[in-house]
Amino acid sequence: MSTKRRQLTVVPGAILSTLAGLILLGVAPVYALEQDVTCVGTATVSISPGLTFWPQTVHLETHVIYSPCVSSDPTLTSGQSGSSFDVPNASCLTFPVASSGAFNISWNNDDSSTFTYNDLSTVVAGQTVLTRIGAITDGQFQGDTAVRVVTYPALDPLQCLTTGVSSQIGTVVLTITAP
Prior knowledge:
This protein is of the alpha+beta class and 179 residues long. It contains two helices and eight strands; from the N terminus they run H-E-E-E-E-E-E-E-H-E. It has helices spanning 3-24, 157-161; strands at 35-51, 56-71, 79-90, 100-107, 112-124, 127-139, 145-152, 165-177.
C-alpha cells in the first residue's frame, strides 16, 4: 500500500472520529442549528377540586412562563401562555391527560405564535412528562415545528388519599425550529 493512499484513508477516518465525538458530546454541526426559539421556564397547574384516587371532573387552569429564551429574533427574550378547561374522570392515576388542540404564546416583543399540537404523556422515574409536538400555525414563526416538554414531579400519594392535589409546578423546555 502506498503512503499516499494511507494518508487518504486516515484523514476520512479522523474526520469521522471527530464528528462522532462531537455528536456524542451533544455538539451539533452548524448546518443543523435552525432553531428560531429555545426557552426554559415553569408551568403551573391549578386543579379544582383537587385530584384524588377517585375519578371526578376537575377544572384545570394552566399558566406557563417561558423565560429565558434564546431566539433568532433578538427582541424576543420571554413569553407566556395559559389555558383553562374541564377534564372528566380525572384522578391521580390519570394526570395529566394527553390531548390535542392549540394555544397562543404571547411573546415579550408584542408578537404571538399559535401552537397547534398533539400530546404524549409518559411517566419517567416517577415524574410525569407531557410532550406537545406540533407546528406554529399562525403568528411569529408560522410554519415552524414546535416541541414543548413539561416535567411534573410525582403526585403526593398522601394528598391523593386525603385533600387532593390542588396544584402542580413543572419545568418547561420549548423549542421552535425552522423547516
